[in-house]
Amino acid sequence: MSYYWFKAFHLIGVVVWFAGLFYLVRLFVYHAEASEMSEPARTILKNQYQIMEKRLYNIITTPGMLVTVAMAIGLIWTEPEVLKSGWLHIKLAFVGLLLVYHHYCKRIMKQLEKDECRWTGQQFRALNEAPTVLLVIIVLLAVFKNNLPLDATTWLIVALVIAMAASIQLYAKKRRQDKERLMQVTQE
Question: What is the mean pLDDT of residues 113-120?
């Protein structure tokens, strides 16, 4: 019975953790774009985003990560033979990358707070896609285990990355066009 409790809370932790990571980097986008605004809006927005980032990271994202990891340890404790599975080693490697990403976000928060981060909103949009790719890989490994069809999975991941890159570029183009239209309207 404890296996099911660990699994349920592991899944809940994963959802919370990813929700936090997705929204955190979205806040970084807004934070970076606030730098392009004039005063006093720039200072007001940057201060507000800084508060939101800290709260999200400390109250939602990090606890989600801790629950995920703790419950994963519980799952392994209930079924230690799973440690012999190759798919789990690969999954844990990707989870390790996700942990690095999580802590890298903390570093970016500190840089934004000190006004030392030179990333653009566009670059943060691209960074925000990394956990999506990791999520897909981790879930596929957890579901398929040793039966993961590598050819199909590889093409799926490649297609996902291409689609995300294309959507980021299309959105950037739309934003530039909207900005140009707005400037034309204000000049008339």
Answer: 94
Burial class of residue 14, CB neighbours in 10 A (0-12, 13-18, 19+): buried
More confident residue, 11 or 179: 11
At residue 37, φ and ψ (nearest 5 deg) are: -85, 160
| Cα 185 from Cα 81, distance rounded (Å) | 67
Tally of domains within the chain: 1
Annotated binding residues = 10, 91
The distance of Cα 66 from the centroid of its chain, to the nearest Å, equals: 16
Going by the annotation, the residues of the binding site for heme are: 10, 91
pTM tops 0.90, yes or no: no
The residue assigned the tokens 């400037």 is 183
Note whether residue 89 is domain-resident.
Answer: yes
Rg (CA), the chain: 20
